[in-house]
Amino acid sequence: MISVESGEQFHLKNDSFSYICGVVDRRFLAHLYWGAPVREIDPRGLPRPATASYLTRIPLSMEGAGVSGSGDRGEGYPEAGGDRGGRAPLSADALAAPEAPQPPAVSLDLLPQEYPAWGTGEQREGAFAVVYADGSEASRLEYREFEVIPDAAEPEFLGLLRQEHELGRVETLRIRLADPRGDISVDLYYLIAERAPVLIRWARFINTSEAALTLIDPASASVDLPVGPWEVLTLGGAWSRERHILRTPLAFGGYSVGSRGGATGHQSAPFLALCDPAADEEHGRVYAVLLAYSGSFEARCEVDQFEVPRLSIGLQRYRGHLEAGECFETPVALLVSSRSGFGGMSDDLHRFLREGVIPKRWREAPPKVVINSWEAMYFQVSHDRTLSLARGGRDIGAELLVLDDGWFSRRRDDRSSLGDWWPNEERFPLGLAGLADALREEGMEFGFWMEPEMVSPESDLCREHPEWVLQIPGREPTLARSQLILDLTREEVREYLIDTVSTLLRDSGASYLKWDMNRNMSEAGSLNLSRERQGEVMHRYILGLYEILRRLTEAFPGVLIEGCAGGGGRMDYGLLRYCPRFWASDQTDAIERLEINYGTTLLFPPEVIGSHVSTVPNHQVRRITDAETRVLTSLPFSFGFELDPAQESEEERLRYLEGARRFRELRQRFSSCRFRRLLGPLSPESRGRRLSGEPAGEVAWMLDGGDEVFIFYYRPLTRSNVRPRRLRIPGLTAGAIYQEQETGIRYDGALLGQVGIVVEPGPGDYRSTFVTLIRTGADRP
Ligand code: GLA
Q1: Whole-model pTM?
Q2: Rounded to the nearest whole angstrom, what is the distance from the C-alpha of residue 268 to the centroid of ligand 1?
């Protein structure tokens, strides 16, 4: 998988991709190729960069000869207020006259680089910045050595692959770069697996100088891609409309998305893709980077003067202090390239997550049908009401009740009690344990909601331990949802949380925990850390969170932790190792959810995406949709309910029950099916000219299990006098015969791929159709 040619070219290759970088002039690590697997790259075939006298020039094969490589600091800079009379730091010999004939040289400004350093010839954005002890901020990274590690070397806290992954053999390439002045070295890591269509990258910084330095916003990966034209695609939005598809042409300058609030956030997923302008679900090149991380991040693409795009992803608002000899390791980035559009990209990511990241036990036991108390009762929860909700839930097919917010201490609304995690005695006289027992007697499993990272100023915990809160002395703390954030960089806070959550889980015997987080960070300072380390608080917090979740999942392997952050405000691969299911959005309207689920499936397989049937009129948008469409919107995902069955009509309850039964019957198969988006913002049909006879906003997807294919079609708005929708079903076996279960109609797989089936959901708005195709034995010998 990793081959090294004459010590100068590193080729990472498996059946899905080749990724090649090489050493130029024995000094600079250049990016050479990323894409479909290739045998080799002859660097002579690469485009020769333009030259112009204004560009920076580093003479070729002058290793150690120029001022840049000498490591000699001379007298250094004067102390503050000092002045040495403008003494030029560079010798005149190093400055070639522009009109003089130019010896062969490298310009870092033109070189496609693997991990660019700013300020010594590179004027594009670097992959990191360092402020050195002398106050300077320019770095240069030159190649030193490499090592092939026959295994998965991964950062201690941010390791992504589960131990028993199914991705085949794994190898890691480590390439060491170092600053010739001797201040830092950077190890670049590349992890490749035999059967993983995804390359994992990260970087490790080592302060090799004698003094402390400050490391700013290190990227986990950076890559210079071929010239476009490109479009950039990101997933973003806001609370209750997360992960909408945002796509725009990429022009000179740059494009960046990210978060600065200590969580990945509702506004953008830690992901950015470049694609051919014509790319759709089935066609075109896509290059994507993702960050397996849950805190502040930036994903960006800078397009330089020659239209070369530089794609990178990494930390944002990180200012790390590194003492002499100290190291820092970035989170891991995932790089995926597809030649078959966004469908190909999602396929690769879903497969990688399923086979490499999501804990095996949850793959083998997909999520239960949940009934959650939030939209049914909000804060008006009590033992009796919860019990009757559970009974109602059981009668419509739910298997597990999740008691949401409002069960603890004096919590009556969102203004108090976070941190005081004991059941309210009046409303839950038998405690969570008593409630859980009562539920189990009714045949229901029990789960509960917590927001462990938070604290209300009006709580005993906050009064007892004001120092446990993230804060900056002298600054008024800014509240959001009336709450503050606990300082997870503190060991005693982590221990307290592990203890509190463990006790509640143990006492109640719960099998499910909804782990919520409802605000971003402000005044992100820690009384626990020194002045120099305040810029590390947000990152250390996330490491603290991972430690808590790691220990809890180890101690309670049978408890499913559902990730939630005001819905989908922290839905990322960093948490996926601990949370095999996410509450993808507080938006439960079926039509709004189509768009959210569509975008979410770009990165996540459907079984990870919590999607519940709620009542009508919907609580977020007041829309009224029929029960059929609400059920079919949730069915392919992690199914459940967010309503009080007692308030629903008999007819609706029957439809819900049928939906839950179907989900229970199919969920195991669903989670090994290939998920494919058929119709929606990225489908070939939508990229082309819209015909006047087409209803707007149609969405369709399928779960392809080979012998069984499940198709879901949704039509938000109807249209007058239109032909019926014929839905193309690509990817089935030509010559094989598939029979539609509902009607008995038989189709050849080739015909399905060319023209498809008619999906007619009947008149009216907000309609949907579900079709099952079963492959018959007709084509087999
Ligand atoms: C957040 C969650 C909801 C619910 C409430 C409870 O908004 O996303 O699902 O749990 O908190 O306060």
Answers
A1: 0.95
A2: 19
